[in-house]
Amino acid sequence: MLHIVIPVFNRWAFTRECLLSLRRQTNRNFRVVVVDDGSTDGTAEALAREFPEVTVLHGTGFLFWTAGVNLGIRHALRHGADRVMTLNNDVQAAPDFIEQMLKAAAKHPRALLGALELDADTHAPVYGGEQFSFLTHRPRHLLHVLPPEQRRGLHPVTYLPGRGLLIPATALAHVGLFDEKRLPHYLADYDYTSVARRRGFPVFINYEARLLTYPDESGQEQTRRRRSLRGYYEHLFGIRGGGNLRNFTHFALKNCPAPLVPLFLLNGYARRMVGYFLH
After folding, report:
1. Residue 54's closest CA among 91, 28, 90, 93?
2. Does the keyword Transferase apply (predicted)?
3. Phi/psi at 211 (nearest 5 deg)?
């Protein structure tokens, strides 16, 4: 059975809407595991009151995304999960989201799958997968190159985000869990799917499965909106910093082809140090 792992820290309103969207699924053959990492806004009490069917695991407040997800995955595997999905709490699933993901998984049982993302307010597509070049340091955004009539079915990508990532248990057995030691918050999802792809597990974006997201609510966007010296420091060195140089270095050393590592690192450092002020 599919187990859906959702790490949360506060923001109960988002978590509630996410869980309500899962209740509306056309395929309900799944279990939900919420990892509450020390929320202080009444999340634990509200979960027990409104969603008794959800399994809740409690963290210390210092798990961050990666360790929280790993805690949920371990629980899922102990309880017989044949597939695990990581899902952020600030998304809503279209009613046939699980149905479409499991349909694709049945046809490609070794594949890791992601979903097309739509802006929750406008329903315009905002993310449709990337094919990344380590040489040029530029992603080829499929939404920019695929004509509307080709935005269907599965498309191979270089990596996938963790907000709606379906992982077969066979991949978890071969690749292991997410790298919580070196990538405690950001890039762990891109790293995991990149490693899995190189180990022979296909990585696809599924245009039939749709998630509603809030692009402006990500930690990276909020940090950039509050531009300051402190924000700049957090951007480059904080655990939740979207431009964290340490995390980027680990990602590069693990995933970039060896001959390209020096150029890739220099390019990436420059982008992160300057990009904070340009976006």
Report:
1. 28
2. yes
3. -120, 140
Extract the tokens encoding 204. Answer: 């696809």
Q: How big is the CA angle at 68 (ends 67 and 70), to the nearest 5 degrees?
A: 60
Q: Per-residue pLDDT tens for 139-154?
A: 999 999 999 999 999 9
Q: Tell me: the pLDDT tens digits for 34-79?
A: 999 999 999 999 999 999 999 999 998 889 999 999 999 999 999 9
Which of 78, 71, 80 lies closest to 35 in space, CA to CA? 71
* Structural domain boundaries in the chain: 2-214, 221-275
What spatial distance separates the first Cα and last Cα of the chain, rounded to whole Å? 42
d(CA 185, CA 243): 11
Domain at 2-214, CATH homologous superfamily: Spore Coat Polysaccharide Biosynthesis Protein SpsA; Chain A (3.90.550.10)
